[in-house]
Every structure is written in C-alpha cells, then in structure tokens.
Amino acid sequence: MEMLKQMAQMYGYDISSPASNAREAIQWLYFAYLAAIKEQNGAAMSLGRTSTFIDIYIERDINRGVLTESGAQELIDDFVMKLRMARHLRTPEYNELFGGDPMWITESIGGMTNEGKTLVTKNSYRMLNTLYTLGSAPEPNMTVLWS
Fold first, then answer.
1. Cα angle at 19 between 53 and 52, to 5 degrees?
2. Where are the alpha helices (DSSP H) in the chain?
3. Longest Cα separation, the chain
4. pTM of this prediction?
5. Where are the domains of the chain?
6. How many CA atoms lie within 13 A of 106 on its CB side?
7. Do residues 84 and 139 lie in contact, with contact meaning Cβ atoms separated by under 8 Å?
8. Which terminus of the chain is less hemmed in, N or C, by CB atoms within 10 Å?
9. Nearest-10 Cα torsion for 144, 22, 75, 130
C-alpha cells in the first residue's frame, strides 16, 4: 500500500484519504488498477463492475451542481482512454500466441442482484457510450450482464 501511495504522490495525488469527488474516485481507481497489473506481472486483470462504483460519485457531483452530464461522460471517456493505453512488456512467444497485445481488461456492466434487482446505472450507459464517443477498441472488454 505504501508503494501505491508513493506512486500516486509522484503524480501529485494524495490517496491516503478517500476520494472527495468523481474525478478523484476515477483517478484513485486507476492507480489501484496500475498497481494490480504491475503486481500480477502481465496476467489477465479484469476490472469488475467499476462503472457502478463510480456512478455513486458522479451522481453526487451532478446533484451538487459541480459536474454536468457531458462532464460525466468526459470523465468516463478519459478513464477508458487510460485503460486502452496500459501495456505490458511481453515475450516474443506471448506475442506469437496472442496478436494485438491484449491486456484482458474486462468491465462488467449491469447484471442483477440475488434479489432480482437490476444493477444497471446511468454509468452503465456512459460506459457503453464510449463506443460512440471514442470508437470501438479491443480494450477494455465490455461484458453486459442481463440475468
């Protein structure tokens, strides 16, 4: 954890306190992702359902009047662009087996709780909208769960 805090400090961020807004929540999440893929040394590292987590911060900022809908989409677009830029140093054998240098980043969107309640949020749509705002790309994989 200390190394993660030091890495964030090099970029001018103090992650020793919880994120106070959506921009910080996304940045903190990205730092955690970078630390995780570094620790895994190139193994597949899915994100999970981060769009739902981030939605809490975005909706709070919109309700406070400090973020607009277009600003919220821009934050998600920026996050996806950062994910698309992550790379590992790979062996030639890996590159021969898997073309295109896949990172296996997967964002799970939607789904249902055990009680049958939907897990779709506004951010689920924002994440999918990056396919229009940024164009399609192999990463991150977007897995839509419907049941």
1. 5
2. 2-10, 22-40, 50-64, 69-85, 92-97, 122-133
3. 51
4. 0.88
5. 2-145
6. 11
7. yes
8. C
9. 10
